[in-house]
Each structure stands twice: as C-alpha cells, then as structure tokens.
Q: What sequence folds into this?
C-alpha cells in the first residue's frame, strides 16, 4: 500500500463500478481528490455516495458523460477546465466489449466500442497530456487487457481495440520521455466486473473459469504500478501467462485456443 504525501486530483473514467470504482478507492484512500466519470447518471450518483461515505474527508466530484458519443471527450475536458481543476492523474478505464461472430454482431455497438475504447481514450490522453507536459508533472493509466497480446475470435473488435491501446501507450512512453509525465498500461486478465454481462459473455467458458480475477486485486496492482511509473502492469500470473503466450506462440495458434475459451459452456 502506498501513502500519498500531497493531495492531487485523479480523473477516472468508468468509475461507477468494477476496476474503475476500485481505482477510485485507491486514490481516495491515499487522500487524493477524485473526479468520477461514468455514463449512467443514477449509477454514478450511487457510486459517488458510496465513496463519500467511505472517505468523508476526500473531495469527490462527478461528471456523467457518455464517452462513446462524438465530441464527448472534448466536452468532458472543457467541463474539467471550467471547474479549474488541474488533473495530475488521468485514468482511462472506461470500455466495453461485444462477443459474437463478427458477421452477426451489432455494428452500431461496435462503433460505440471503438469510439469509447479508442477515440475517447486518445482524445483525453492528448488533452490532459498537453496540460501535464506544460506543468512538468502527471501520470496516465490506460486500461489494456490480456487481449492486447492475442487475437480473440468472437471478441475481435474489442481485442483489436486493446491491442491499439498497448501500442499507442508504449509509443507515447518513448515520445514523452523526459517530459515529467509517465504512462502506464494495465493489462488485466478476465476480471469479475459487469464486463461479461455487457459483452454477452456470461455463459462462456472463460467467464466461468478460474482465470477470472478480483477487481480489487487488479486495481491495487494498477494503482501501485502507476505510482511507481511502471510502463506495463501484468497484475496476475494469468496475465503474465497471456503476455508470454502472445510472444512465444504463433497468432493463429493463440487465436484458435482463445476461440474455444469464448465459446459457450455446453448445457
């Protein structure tokens, strides 16, 4: 556990549940102010009330925002600027998946996925990183996945978006070296959140396997890695295994294995 020495502000997307909510707890526990961002206003209000009850002395603000829509990231940034809050920690956590055969999945949902997982993430990174470089300090945590390393048939668009995040973040780590800011990519294994429900994966083999990890453990590992300035965080043995498998084995072999895990459990 790390203890903060100064009170700074973290902006966390997807903060109303899962890994985002647990990351919020990490920052609030160490005395940092938090701007909690999420799509659904009622769910966000409930999460804010929960965090305020747990950490009554921490400044918590909230912004309801659907980052899967055009222009939403720019509006969010403008809202934060209007409040006059310098963001020291940007946590690009929000994202979702869509499981199914690519020819049969909902294109509009996948376009929204690309907008949230990629376009909003890139936009927020640009907006806030520019401010951080001017100040000479700041840290950014991008939520990748073990899917960043291996093609995922039946989860093709989601996995591709996470591969983008890994490549994008590791390129910026070199570009922004010696600027005073750090970027960390967190690549968790399947995690116990509402991801499976949103992605229509509740009955898959992987969702019902021992690979599924705790959101608390994943968030703690991501938080500590961010604060240490680590480039990449593989929070569990399972995550490390996926990364090694992606390097050591051919993509076609990995994709075939992954497809089996994404098939439904037989009745």
A:
């Amino acid at each position: 556990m790390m203890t903060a020495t100064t009170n700074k502000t973290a902006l966390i997307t997807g903060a109303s549940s899962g890994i985002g909510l647990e990351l919020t707890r990490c920052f609030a526990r160490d005395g940092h102010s938090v701007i909690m961002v999420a799509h659904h206003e009622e769910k966000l209000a409930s999460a804010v009330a929960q965090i305020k009850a747990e950490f009554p002395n921490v400044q918590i603000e909230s912004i309801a925002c659907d980052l899967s829509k055009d222009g939403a990231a720019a509006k969010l940034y403008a809202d934060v600027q209007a409040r006059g809050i310098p963001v020291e920690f940007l946590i690009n956590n929000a994202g979702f998946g869509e499981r199914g055969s690519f020819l049969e999945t909902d294109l509009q949902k996948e376009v929204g996925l690309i907008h949230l997982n990629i376009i909003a993430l890139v936009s927020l990174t640009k907006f806030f990183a520019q401010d951080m470089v001017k100040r000479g300090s700041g840290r950014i945590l991008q939520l990748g996945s073990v899917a960043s390393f291996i093609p995922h048939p039946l989860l093709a668009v989601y996995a591709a978006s996470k591969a983008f995040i890994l490549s994008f973040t590791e390129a910026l780590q070199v570009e922004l070296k010696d600027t005073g800011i750090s970027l960390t990519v967190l690549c968790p294994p399947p995690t116990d959140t509402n991801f499976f429900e949103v992605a229509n994966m509740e009955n898959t083999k992987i969702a019902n396997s021992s690979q599924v990890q705790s959101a608390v453990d994943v968030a703690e590992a991501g938080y500590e890695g961010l604060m240490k300035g680590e480039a990449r965080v593989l929070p569990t043995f399972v995550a490390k295994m996926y990364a090694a498998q992606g390097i050591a084995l051919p993509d076609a072999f990995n994709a075939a294995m992954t497809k089996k895990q994404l098939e439904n459990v037989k009745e």
About this structure: The radius of gyration is 18 Å.
